[in-house]
Amino acid sequence: MNILEKIVETKKVEVTRQKKVIPVAQLKKYPGYQRKCNSLKAALLKHNSTGIIAEFKQKSPSKGEINFGVKVEEVTKGYADAGASGLSVLTDYEYFGGTLANLAKAREVNPEIPILRKDFMIDTYQIVEAKAFGADVILLIAACLEKELAETLAQKAKSLGMEVLMEVHNAEELTKLNDFVDIVGVNNRNLKTFKVDVETSVELAKFITERFVKISESGLADTETIHYLRKHGFKGFLIGETFMKTENPGEACRKLIAELSFRSRVLGREIC
Fold first, then answer.
1. Which is the catalytic residue, given 110, 201, 218, 264?
2. Residues in Cβ contact with 74 at an 8 Å cutoff, skipping those fewer than 6 apart
3. Which of these is catalytic: 38, 110, 187, 216?
4. Is 217 a catalytic residue?
5. How many structural domains are present in the chain?
6. Which CATH number belongs to the domain containing residue 152 in this structure?
7. Are strands 115-118 and 137-141 parallel, antiparallel or unpaired?
8. Which one Pfam family would you cite for this protein (predicted)?
9. Do residues 40 and 212 touch, judged by C-beta distance below 8 A?
10. Which of 87, 118, 166, 269 is the most exposed place for a label (fewest CB within 10 A)?
């Protein structure tokens, strides 16, 4: 059993338990369930968008503890103030140290910016849960979902006014895309070896149609890489560890965006 399979098995147990703790009927009474979602797709396509989707992630299976010395409210507000186009908040606790409480806190201090719930979605219950706790976008990881289930989950999210980001790692997983997906994220990290290669994004971009907004994930640490990926049609860049491993993630985000803007001016073109 690889790490992804192990995570999914753990998630099945968690979801079964959570359904009993907070039933769907109760989730629908949460204030977040009634709010209108912010569009990440629109934010990424906006004129002069930075394209940065800044992530709050405190640990991971591959890196271990990253940063438990910061507060989600301060970090995500720092990201938003720095000019990030969107936020990503991990809600998986067992493997990533995330919580739904972190999602709710990020939403409270950042009412206008799109927020992605980063987790391993395997049940429509989690979609309702995401909406109730303030998410605008949900993540579907193609590697751990059958095509039919991926479509069911995506359709449920769209019915609640949310957007769908489907993450892929190879060309085979692109066959799981469906009409309810808004954004395709190419994860440059090999799930079997954990090796990161940005060329994964470049290669898969050739097979992703223009109807989907393309974003790149993992291994993004400098403006040169971001500009390189923009040339291949990428509009979004999900960055977590690069920011989170610093003492002040919001400031690290601000510096990267400032460098990105400067580099764009030097090249004689606008930021997007």
1. 218
2. 250
3. 187
4. yes
5. 1
6. 3.20.20.70
7. parallel
8. IGPS
9. no
10. 269
Is there a catalytic annotation at residue 218? yes
* Total residue length of the chain: 272
Q: What are phi and psi of 252, to 5 degrees?
A: -65, -40
Report the b/e string of 139-170 with b at 16+ CB within 10 A: bbbbbbbeeebbbbbbebbbebebbbbbbbbe
Domain assignment present for 271: no
The one-letter code for the residue type at 247 is: E
Intervals of the chain under pLDDT 50: 270-272
Residue-range definition of the domain harbouring residue 160: 3-266
Write down the catalytic residue from 14, 38, 49, 57.
Answer: 57
**84: nearest Cα among 26, 20, 141, 38:** 38
Q: Decide if 55 is catalytic.
A: yes
Domain membership of residue 171 (yes or no) is: yes
Catalytic residue among 14, 129, 151, 167: 167
Q: For 242-254, give one letter per residue: b (16+ CB within 10 A) or e.
A: bbbeeeebbebbb
Residue 166 · residue 182 · CB < 8 Å: no
pLDDT of residue 272: 42
**CB 134 within 8 Å of CB 106:** yes
Listed in sequence order, the residues at least 6 apart from 172 whose beta carbon sits closer than 8 Å to its beta carbon are none
Q: Does 224 fall in a domain? A: yes
Does residue 123 lie in a domain region?
A: yes
Q: Is 118 a catalytic residue?
A: yes
Q: Which residue has the tokens 């609640």?
A: 160
C-alpha span between 156 and 150 (Å, rounded): 10
3-state SS class at 254? helix
